[in-house]
Amino acid sequence: MQEALAFVEALLSSAVAAGTIYLLAAVGESITERSGVINLGIEGIMAIGAVSSFLLTLAYGHLAALLGAAALGALVGLFHATLSVSLRLNQVVVGLAITWLGLGLSGFVGAPEVARYVLETLNPAVPGYLAELKQAPRLQELNLGPLSGIPVLGRALFTQNALVYFGLISAVLAWLIIFRTRWGLSLRSVGENPALADSSGINVFLTRYLALIVGSAFAGLAGAYLFTGYQPFWVEDLTRSRGFIALSLVILASWSPLRAVGASLLFGALEALQFRVQLRGLGAETPQLVMMLPYLITILTLVVVSLATRGRIPAPAALGKPYTREE
């Protein structure tokens, strides 16, 4: 019994930590898509955020890494907006191009630094092998006093790093802004009927620019969290298609940042589970099948949601459609 409780406690704690990656990305993408723009470049932006946080953490520390990753994500979002909003290029093509650009750029920039870092920390007693990689310190976990001692849930909810709580607070604030403020009403109007919003005095182009920049900043922050808060080392393809899973979570959450919390925790639990079942010897001979679990569940979940809603998923009506002002 004690062993089972310990397993559940560790799984929940890992689920919250892993789910924050998806939550940060999903919150940002929810804001972006509410404006009528789909950002398929989120995977590439997360990769850029991850490699920039790796470099900046080693040089200047965590705060610089997080701010730098968010700023770079915002810059890529500005680039995306210029192409898809101002020049009205196909949003899917632009997003995929940014994804491949981000993945390639992160590998190109990060590989020499990883090689140098490995050479400096390689144990000469074991030539030809990486005996010990000196890991950069992760974000410090916060201990919220007696709350952290609550059985099962204490460790999962009250012994996490600051970025985990930032993600949860951001989801609540984003929901309040989107559904309870005037700017949120303008954002949703642009995503549903940009022509009507324009005739009402709402600046469609500025709204979409802001939504893309903010959403991309969140994606960059999600990539930074991968290195600073989840696994304190960087390797090429660190994101492992998590950006695409975050895109599916936005659909699963019906474009609501608040619902994205539950969806992100679910997929965080699946990611944590795939490693823990291997530690217990399950799927050790075929680890590739276990690694497929989150992606398989993603597809099955979307199929179930589509069947449950009979294909009428409440997406913003103008999602993916460039807007041209009628003269």
Can you describe this structure?
This protein is mainly alpha-helical and 327 residues long. It has a single domain (2-121, 160-308), classed as ABC transporter involved in vitamin B12 uptake, BtuC, CATH 1.10.3470. Helix content is 71%, strand content 0%. It has 13 helices and no strands. Helix 2 (42-60) crosses helix 10 (242-252), helix 3 (62-86) packs antiparallel against helix 4 and helix 11 packs antiparallel against helix 13 (293-308). The longest helix is centred in the N-terminal third of the chain and has 33 residues, at 2-34. The chain starts with a helix and ends in a 19-residue tail after the last helix. The relative contact order is 0.21.
Structural class: mainly alpha
End-to-end distance, in Å? 71 Å
Kindly give the count of domains: 1
Uncertain residue ranges: 126-135
The CATH class is identified as: Mainly Alpha
Show the helix and strand layout.
Layout: H1 2-34, H2 42-60, H3 62-86, H4 91-121, H5 153-158, H6 162-180, H7 182-192, H8 194-199, H9 204-230, H10 242-252, H11 257-279, H12 287-291, H13 293-308
Helix pairs in contact: 1-6, 1-9, 1-10, 1-11, 2-3, 2-4, 2-9, 2-10, 3-4, 3-9, 6-7, 6-11, 10-11, 10-13, 11-13
